[in-house]
Each structure stands twice: as structure tokens, then as C-alpha cells.
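Incident log, structure service

09:12 report received: a user says their structure output differs between two submissions of the same chain.
09:20 pulled the input from the user's history:
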Amino acid sequence: KPSVTRRAVAIWINPSERPPVRIIKESPVLETDYAQITRLTFEVLPGLESYALRLRPKTPGPHTPLLAQHGYFGTPEQVVGLTPGANGKDIAYRSMGLRAARRGYHVIAPHHPDTYGNPEEGRHETHPGHSDQIWHYGNNRLNRLCLLNGGSRFGLDMMISSRAVDLLLDAPNIDAPRVGMYGLSRGGEAAVLLPALDTRIEATVCAAFFNRRLLKLIGPGRLTNYLDWFDESQFLFDFVRWFSDADLVSLIAPRAF
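09:34 re-ran on a clean worker, output below:
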């Protein structure tokens, strides 16, 4: 079923078939006693850019590369631990990126675009040309544009995260090919699907996503199901017919999940 998975996300180019990832800009953000943190802008596809935070540990290498993926309407700054209140009582990331860098991991946290505003500050705003819409409209509008191109918003996310794996493996002093991944919430969704597509990821942690997919999509369930939620991008073509979450994870085996 890997070919079915690729068709469902559609915006996907196998790592062996894509050009080397191009870094457009990399600038310093913060330096601690154990890591250098930079923000880099990189090309995902021709004409399409995203950004990521990179945490280079100062300990002697080689360092194990780790992809850290934020959740729905999250940011790299949140998953890394650079936002105000990053370790607050109800903040599940708990500065995971900083803690991983302290333990000697070379971390890259890529951004999945969602809405308007400043992602570095965690601000979400309505579409500038559609002030009558709620701020979630920016995410749904992007999903609709992806659908018109024969893909999906989540497929776009998968290419961004896989390009971040390219960045990890291109970095010096890396213990390749031992790539790990941690994803929370929607990042946990990425941690279910991306390793099935990108076999360079050898060990994966999925937090706060793995579920009984049909019930989560249409209910009944204890929490709001996606059918009655504002996010349109959770509905991937043919997934209910072909896959449960456990079936997707079976595509990762025998790699660790």
C-alpha cells in the first residue's frame, strides 16, 4: 500500500528523485552553553519556501539527527521552547527541542504553514482579503489550493518535513543515517505518515494523535470529531477505505515506532 499512501498525499517526490535541498538564508537566533540555534529558510519545491529552526549541539559529534514537528497551528519556536511560557502548565512541547539538543541531538524543527500572522510569535490572523472569515480560513484556503493542484495540504506538510530530513542529512558531523522523529498532535499525524513515505527515518515517536481513525473522523467519540470541526485538511482521499492508523504504522515496520 505505499503507492496508495503516496497518491493520497499527492504532493510528494521520493528523496532519490529530488534535487539537493537549497538553503536560501540561515541566520543566528540564540546561543546557549550547549547549542547554537539558527533560523533557516529553505526551498521545498520550486517557488515554494518554508523555514525551520536548527539546533546544533556543542558537544563532540557525531550527533544523532532529530526531526521535531509541531502540531496544529503550532510553530518551530513552540516545539523548540523559545516562546514565552514554553514550559507552562498546559504546554505539551515542554521545550523538547532544547532538551534534545542538550542531550546531543542535532535538531531541525520545520514550519508547516497554516494561516496568516507571524508564526515566530505564534500569532494567527484572518486572511487579509477576507476579514469576514474566521482565522482558520487561511488553513482551509491553502488546503483548497492544494486540492486544485491534485494534492492535499497534508501532502504539502509531508514534503516540508521530508525536506527537513534532507537538511539533517546534509549537515556536517551527523551520525547518519540514524534519523529520528518526534511529532506532537498534528505533528503526531506527520509521525504516523511521514516515516511510511520517507524510509530514512529509523525511529519515530508519535504523541497525541494515534487513534481509531474512522471514529475520529466522523464519530461518535468523546471529543469533537473532524467532520464537525473547522479543519478541512484532515480528510485525505481514500484513507478510510484503505487505512486505519495501525495499518499506516505497519508500513513503517520493522523500523521503530
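09:41 both user submissions now match this output. Likely a transient worker issue. Closing.
09:42 reviewer note: The CA atoms of residues 163 and 186 lie 18 Å apart. The chain has nine helices and seven strands.
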